[in-house]
Write a structure and sequence with these properties.
379 residues, alpha/beta, Rossmann fold, Dehydroquinate synthase-like, alpha domain, 2 domains, six-stranded parallel sheet, two-stranded antiparallel ribbon, 13 helices, globular
Length: 379
């Protein structure tokens, strides 16, 4: 990898910064995709400069699905959009990112998908994309992929290409002030998982290490403080920025076994992505550490993580122990028992090991070791 980080060309941040949104859209027709639950959209549309930037609006809910994406693109390809904007959670941002990437596509959409398709690189120009996240965790606003659910195959797969990095990101914590704690917790744990997996990744670089060393303590401290008082506005801002940086980190270093499992569990079961990551992360840390110790590999990064989490939580213990206690104090939506049955667990392990995220794990895990991650996560 060269010295340049893959990251959005422009970052606008600060409370009220969403008011600048129209300025960063290209002149011409704009497609605005937003979460159905977003309350701020009406005021945003009222102030929109419709003369110079005509607006097409689409509200979405749930995770991006291939069938829905194909239907929308069939309609929108007839329009020459100058920009696509997504305002919402990680799923909405991913949906907008996929639309911007595929509006000018010449091949069938499935050809561009990993696992179920050919993973063909984008061979066409993409539409300028602006991401405005409304949660504090997914980092989707800074990544080069979009996660798409393929219902008939029971999997989530990625559409991935460096061209998909958003051209502009707006971080406005005003959009996060009304989030309930369970959303702050699950999306915050997603960001923490992304930072930790990027830090431990076998594909990590000095640049991604520097990002993770700076942001992991911030994300841990902010989420811990928010667990005590959800209304701490400065901590929401810090966590939102750490989440953005988690996206930059993973786009440049990859992830690990947690996200390998998250893609297949999320495709087969109705489980929130952040909650899956939260439940699996302590177990993945424990198993990876044990296997690396058995193979007499360096545990320096695990020891650094121990120090980070001890400082953030004000307790002693290893990173897997302390995160495990924190997670299972606050996690309300745990994995269903069916996940841990032998047939289901074996299928999930096979799927996880085939995922692109699994390739970034700090060490190559055997089938039984990967299964141990899943079984250990059961509480």
């Amino acid at each position: 990898m060269d010295d340049l980080l893959l990251q959005p060309a422009r970052l606008i941040q600060g409370r009220g910064s969403i008011e600048q949104l129209a300025e960063w859209a290209q002149p011409g027709e704009v497609l605005l995709i937003h979460s159905k639950s977003l309350n701020a959209i009406e005021r945003l549309v009222q102030d929109w400069p419709l003369t110079s930037r005509p607006l097409t609006i689409c509200a979405v809910s749930g995770e991006p699905e291939l069938e829905q994406l194909e239907q929308h693109l069939g309609v929108w390809r007839n329009k020459a959009f100058a920009s696509v904007i997504a305002v919402g959670g990680g799923s909405t941002v991913d949906y907008g990112k996929a639309v911007a990437a595929l509006l000018n596509a010449k091949a069938p959409i499935a050809d561009y998908l990993e696992v179920v398709g050919r993973g063909t690189p984008l061979d066409h120009d993409i539409v300028a994309f602006i991401a405005v996240p409304t949660t504090v965790g997914t980092g989707a606003e800074a990544t080069k992929n979009a996660v798409i659910k393929v219902k008939d195959r029971g999997v989530k797969v990625s559409l991935r290409d460096p061209k998909m990095i958003p051209s502009c990101v707006i971080l406005d914590a005003n959009l996060c002030d009304d989030l309930p704690w369970h959303i702050i917790f699950s999306t915050g744990m997603d960001a923490i998982t992304q930072l930790i997996e990027s830090f431990l990744s076998c594909k990590a670089t000095p640049q991604t290490d520097a990002i993770c060393k700076a942001q992991i303590p911030i994300a841990l401290e902010s989420l811990f403080r928010l667990s005590l008082d959800r209304l701490l506005a400065p901590e929401l801002e810090r966590l939102q920025h750490a989440a953005y940086m988690s996206g930059v980190a993973l786009a440049n270093s990859g992830l690990g076994v947690v996200h390998g499992f998250a893609s297949v569990i999320g495709g087969a079961y109705e489980c929130a992505h952040g909650a899956i990551c939260a439940q699996l992360l302590p177990a993945a840390l424990q198993v990876n550490r044990q296997v690396m110790a058995q193979r007499q590999l360096s545990l320096q990064k695990f020891e650094q993580l121990d120090d980070m989490v001890q400082t953030a939580f004000g307790e002693t213990g290893t990173v897997d122990q302390l995160l495990g206690r924190f997670v299972f104090t606050h996690l309300t939506n745990r994995l269903p028992n069916e996940v841990f049955s032998e047939p289901a667990a074996n299928a999930l392990v096979q799927g996880a090991m085939q995922s692109s995220s699994f390739k970034g794990n700090p060490i190559s895990l055997a089938f039984d070791e990967t299964l141990q991650v899943l079984i250990t996560s059961r509480r």
